[in-house]
């Protein structure tokens, strides 16, 4: 199906309507010549005449095997797609009165997400009358951002949207898993008595 989309995109051989074309190709000198002569040259090289730039004057045509040309295009598109960085946004939810144990648990998850290259969107959800504790929610999110300042930068400061107060963090450039690991307390190597 993808190959069919590429096939219809380029004109080849007799589908080309221009009177004169500029021909290019491997082992072929670039020159402007009538379409009939360009088709004859392509036939001599046992290849196809493929119109690669139809909007210029005269149109640029390449002498190449058409299936090889499509293969190269697909390969180039695949390489470009592989180079694209896909950014995931992970969400972490807090309550306005989240205790320290839950906070630390969610903080470790956020560190892992950031080290993997994902963005983190942390939010405090206010249920019912808990909207009265807006200040506590803001303090919690600022503390969260402060605790992650070594590996993350703040994209968006705490913002109240309806019953949610959100903050968005993205990983700092150059932070790897090795350099940003959570420090553990060293264990003693001496045997217990």
For the residues shown, what is the average pLDDT? 81
Total strand segments: 8
Based on secondary structure, the structural category is alpha/beta
- Shape category: rod-shaped
Could you characterize the architecture of this molecule?
By secondary structure, this protein is an alpha/beta fold. The longest helix has 18 residues. The radius of gyration is 30 Å and the shape is rod-shaped. The chain starts with a helix and ends in a 22-residue tail after the last strand. Strand 7 and strand 8 form a beta hairpin. The protein contains five helices and eight strands, in the order H-E-E-H-E-E-H-E-H-E-H-E-E. The strands form two sheets. It has a four-stranded mixed sheet with strand order 2-1-4-3. A four-stranded mixed sheet has the order 5-6-8-7, covered by helices on one side. The C terminus is likely disordered.
Notable traits:
alpha/beta, 4-stranded mixed beta sheet, single chain, disordered C terminus, about 190 residues, 5 helices, rod-shaped
Summarize the structure.
The chain has five helices and eight strands. It is α/β, with parallel strands linked by helices.
């Amino acid at each position: 199906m993808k190959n069919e989309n590429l096939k219809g995109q380029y004109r080849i051989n007799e589908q080309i309507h221009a009177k004169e074309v500029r021909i290019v190709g491997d082992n072929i000198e670039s020159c402007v010549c009538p379409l009939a002569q360009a088709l004859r040259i392509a036939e001599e090289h046992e290849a196809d005449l493929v119109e690669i730039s139809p909007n210029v004057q005269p149109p640029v045509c390449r002498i190449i095997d058409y299936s090889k040309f499509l293969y190269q295009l697909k390969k180039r598109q695949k390489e470009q797609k592989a180079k694209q960085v896909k950014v995931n946004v992970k969400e972490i939810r807090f309550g306005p009165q989240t205790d320290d144990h839950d906070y630390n648990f969610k903080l470790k998850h956020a560190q892992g997400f950031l080290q993997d290259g994902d963005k983190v969107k942390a939010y405090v959800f206010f249920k019912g009358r808990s909207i009265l504790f807006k200040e506590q929610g803001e303090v919690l999110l600022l503390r969260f951002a402060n605790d992650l300042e070594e590996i993350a930068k703040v994209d968006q400061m705490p913002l109240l949207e309806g019953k949610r107060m959100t903050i968005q963090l993205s990983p700092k450039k150059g932070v790897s898993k090795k350099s940003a690991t959570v420090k553990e307390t060293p264990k003693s190597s001496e045997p217990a008595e």
